[in-house]
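Quick one: structure tokens for this chain, please?
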Amino acid sequence: MTTLSLLQLYPEQLGVSGDGGNVVALAERARRAGLDVELVEHRPGDSLPVGADLVVIGSGPLSTLRSIHSDALRFREALSDWADSGVPVVAIGGGMELLSQGISGEGADLEGLGFFDASAHRGAKRRANYFRVETAYSGPSLTLFGFEDHATRFELAAGASAFGTVITGGGNGDGAEGVSRGSSFGTQLKGPVLPLNPQLTDRVLASAVSRIGGVYDAGPAHATLDEYARQSRLVIEKNLERAFKAM
């Protein structure tokens, strides 16, 4: 049986938007596809893991990013090496900002890990709304649903690629959403994004599993999860315009 090593960074500190649900979705869908899952949780002060097949980092406020900053910097080289070897890194909200070149604005200057070729600028108009994005991550175009809650303008460097295109919402502030690097991506989509959007979850898992010589296929065992997600996305879709607001 293929074993997938799933690494979650700072589960207590970076999970303010239910981001632990992303890890649960990845692990559960992998197990229902017949894979064995080894979940590793890294906390401040822990030894650096030797490796991982898939990495997830959630969101948190600036105060929390500061509290884990020195520990997170230890991952700078490892994350880059893993990603270059094909390991998907999924970063949500504040985790995406931490993995950028840096965070600035409103006294928020904080060095990033430089994993993504982009920078975060605090002080933008706050977005708190349902969110619809199109992405071509690892396949044909997908429409993703969730919500965003942030006051960040996220600026991609020249040559960097966005994770997707905003259909409804704010995203990076220029019509693009998030950032991608190979099979890795960062996004402001919350919800949590992976349970809400199982097709995206399956693409992440397929990328991770194929790298270690396995095969990932969703099937009948996933049908109930898919139906829950479909119903949840339908509620969001029906309320996109009514619920949408800029604060």
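The first helix runs from residue 20 to 32.
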